[in-house]
Amino acid sequence: MPTVAIFGVGLIGGSFGLALKKAGFKGTIVGVSSEATLRLALERGAIDEAAPMADAARGADLIYLARPIGGILDTLHHLDSCVNSGTLITDVGSTKSAIVAAARKHIRRCTFLGGHPMAGKEKRGVGEADADLFRGRTYVLTPDDPADLENAPAKDFLEWVRRIGARPVVLTPEEHDRTVSFTSHLPQLASTALAATVAEHAGDRLSVAGPGLADTTRLALSSFELWRDILATNSVAIEQALSAYISKLEHVRDNLRTREIESEFEIAAALAATLRK
């Protein structure tokens, strides 16, 4: 892929550009973003040049859609007339079913491969971009058709995913959305709800809080602007995850004075230990 166009050179898009270069990419990386973002991305070396959307798309072998979900969906509506037949379009959206469905409807001239790198930070923007952001992290791919992984552009992209240190995992869009409703979206909402509850009931006594509160509310620093589209495009799965969590909280509440709660501590500790290996 001699030319990569990154649409949205923020934290993820900027990190992808930096990661490619660190991994030995010698082609051209073109950025499509706001003027201020492009200026900083050029300064940081995340991209080599800037271009309008249509120009960047026409010259790209890989188009990397790193905008928020709403921006990805909007771009997919307008991109097909600008791309070449050998181009691969991929994205980094945190939900996949709506995006893959939009690509199926609007992208006809080339291949679309849904993607979601399981990496990020609470802070956003290309100023936070990190060449090692993807290293050791799962990179989910959600082809509309498994055969889409067998064409040359997709194989080339997969090789670069591995070179930047990520671990590719293939899921259907529906499997992805069900899974991340528990592994990503539920933790965010649990942290947000916890922080809001403490703010309402003990917000004037934070000097009495230990480091555990800071640890468990870390995700509450995340921006609603980022999460609005995630919640809207995966609401059914998130509702199911929240229902399961609420049921578990009720079970814990009902067993505060019984030995039943001991098994919950054991199950939870085992999962926490696994995550930290």
**Strand order in space, largest sheet:** 3-2-1-4-5-6-7-8
* Average pLDDT, all residues: 96
Spatial separation of the terminal alpha carbons = 35 Å
Q: Write down the oligomeric state.
A: single chain
Order of H and E elements: EHEHEHEHEHEEHEHHHHH
CATH class wording of the largest domain: Alpha Beta
Largest sheet: 8 strands, mixed
Number of helical runs?
11
CATH superfamily name of the largest domain?
NAD(P)-binding Rossmann-like Domain
Radius of gyration (CA) equals 21 Å
Tell the overall outline.
globular
Give the domain tally. Answer: 2
Q: What is the CATH architecture annotation of the largest domain?
A: 3-Layer(aba) Sandwich
**CATH fold group of the largest domain:** Rossmann fold
Written description of the protein model:
- This protein is an alpha/beta fold and 277 residues long.
- It has 2 domains: 3-171, NAD(P)-binding Rossmann-like Domain (Rossmann fold); 175-275, 6-phosphogluconate dehydrogenase C-terminal like domain (6-phosphogluconate dehydrogenase C-terminal fold).
- It contains 11 helices and 8 strands.
- The protein has helices at 11-22, 35-44, 53-58, 69-78, 97-106, 152-163, 173-202, 211-216, 224-233, 235-254, 260-275, and strands spanning 3-7, 28-32, 49-50, 62-65, 88-91, 111-117, 138-142, 167-170.
- An 8-stranded mixed β-sheet has the order 3-2-1-4-5-6-7-8, sandwiched between helices.
- Helix 5 (97-106) links the parallel strand 5 and strand 6 (111-117).
- Helix 4 (69-78) packs parallel to helix 5 and helix 7 packs across helix 10 (235-254).
- The longest helix is centred in the last third of the chain and has 30 residues, at 173-202.
